[in-house]
Amino acid sequence: MDPIWQNLPVLLDGLRLTIQYSIVAIILMVVIGLVAALMRLSAVAPLRWIATAYVEIFRSTPLLVQLFFIVLGLPAILPVNQWFGQLTYPILAAALTLSLNEGAYVTEIIRAGILGVDRGQKEAAQSIAMNGFQTMRYIVLPQAFKRMIPPLVNQAAQTIKDTSLLAPVGIAELVYKGEIVIAETFASFAIWGLIAALYFVLIFSVSKFSSYMERRLQVDKR
Amino acid sequence: MINVKDLHKSFGHNEILKGISTHVAEKEVVVVIGPSGSGKSTFLRCLNGLETATSGEIEIAGMTLTDPKTNIHMLRQHVGMVFQQFNLFKHLTILENVTIGPRKVKKVTPAEADKVARELLAKVGLVGKEASYPDELSGGQQQRVAIARSLAMGPNVMLFDEPTSALDPEMVGEVLQVMKTLAVEGMTMVVVTHEMGFAREVGHRVIFMDDGLIVEEGAPKALFSDPQVDRTKSFLAKIL
């Protein structure tokens, strides 16, 4: 048990970063996903093209490759380190790349949610003179949102797990810290087991919290 | 109140409306009948811009709908619409269904919108249902809420797209009664329906449409008892 207890503070420090990146990415992925979904459903063709290209590019390449490319590759051709600071750039780039990747999936979740709302709802809103924004904001999105909760929770769980891919690009989150601890203690069975348990607790609490929220919103009822 | 000149509407190569011209006077109740696929619903949907006319001219409540410069949202405030499937906002209570238009579109204060909504719900016979959700109401009740929702915007014209076709037979009467009251009060109405009793009793004029054209129109009594065109005769023979 020694290697675990002695190194627990180091691992918890990594867990703290994992949670921070998760929170930022989950918030940003929803914002990005909403904007891109509305663009994909827009009547303006160029907006549709941009959003479709974004989704396809991020969905069709591995997150790990995207992280290497943007966090480590970009500085080789652009002075991004000078623009944002040598220490800040990798943090920003890693968080943003993760958010963009997850946002591509969220785009499709939100788009499907919006398309799932009966067309008559939109027509009724138009018939009482609502404009496009009001129709979306007050009629379509509130109904779409309720059906989007289960897939969005799935995606949030996926996002938390995907933060582990930040380790190879030098973000000192849970997996990164774990590798350091193992290099010193050789206790790979105990440490990886503990790390898996920490992820489990984190994601399990998120999913329990969201089923509680779902019940409160009475998703099934209406 | 409504002026339609040579209205055409196509979906792709499929021409649904092949040149409709008619006029609806203020306080007039016009009933549109015809076989399914005759274009009567499309015609009605063109009147509030849910469908865009391919060509022709529509003037309604003093605005030219077919003029691209016309603000369609401004126009729709004057043209209420009631749908076959009610289309109540499922996530809102009955009261909210009626108040949301005035509050968000006309920027009426919540207190004022509430007051108007309660009056309208009383008018359509739904006192006590304010806090219910649409799913908890019968079809007839939902359709009466839908009428109240439209009226809350203070329209000059009301369009009804087969308002009783999705209802159980015993609920048809309560909806027609509300519509009749509106007609008596002088609302300008265009009603697409299969309810010939309503057409006869409440309608000032009946339009018979077939294959995207107005085949015949006239006072209900004359049209039902003495149709002039063969197509009208055969249609009426089947349904009367």
User: What structural category characterises the helix and strand content of chain A?
Assistant: mainly alpha
Overall morphology of chain B: globular
Helices of chain A, by number, come to 9
What is the CA–CA distance across the termini of chain A?
A: 51 Å
Straight-line N-to-C gap of chain B: 31 Å
> Unreliable segments of chain A (pLDDT under 50, ≥5 consecutive)?
none
Evaluate the radius of gyration of chain B.
18 Å
- Bin the strand percentage of chain A: under 5%
Q: Mind summarizing the main beta sheet of chain B?
A: 6 strands, mixed
Can you give keywords for this protein?
heterodimer, A: 222 residues, mainly alpha, B: 240 residues, alpha/beta, 9 helices, 10 strands, globular
Topology:
The complex is a heterodimer of chains A (about 220) and B (about 240).
Chain A: H1 2-40, H2 45-59, H3 63-77, H4 80-84, H5 88-115, H6 119-127, H7 132-162, H8 174-185, H9 188-216
Helix pairs in contact in A: 1-2, 1-5, 1-8, 1-9, 2-5, 3-5, 5-7, 6-7, 7-9, 8-9
Chain B: E1 2-11, E2 14-24, E3 29-33, H1 40-47, E4 55-60, E5 63-64, H2 72-76, E6 79-82, H3 94-104, H4 110-123, H5 139-151, E7 157-161, H6 169-184, E8 188-192, H7 196-202, E9 205-210, E10 213-218, H8 220-225, H9 230-239
Parallel strand pairs in B: 3-8, 3-9, 6-7, 7-8
Antiparallel strand pairs in B: 1-2, 1-4, 4-5, 9-10
Description:
The complex is a heterodimer of chains A (222) and B (240). The relative contact order of chain A is 0.15. In chain A, helix 8 runs antiparallel to helix 9. The longest helix of chain A has 39 residues, at 2-40. With 222 residues, chain A is mainly alpha-helical. Chain A has helices spanning 2-40, 45-59, 63-77, 80-84, 88-115, 119-127, 132-162, 174-185, 188-216. The model of chain A has no long low-confidence stretch (mean pLDDT 92). Helices cover 82% and strands 0% of the residues of chain A. Chain A has nine helices and no strands. With 240 residues, chain B is of the alpha/beta class. Chain B is 38% helix and 25% strand. Chain B contains nine helices and ten strands. In chain B, helix 3 packs parallel to helix 5 (139-151). The longest helix of chain B has 16 residues, at 169-184. Chains A and B meet through helix 6 and helix 7 of A and helix 2, strand 6, helix 3 and helix 5 of B.
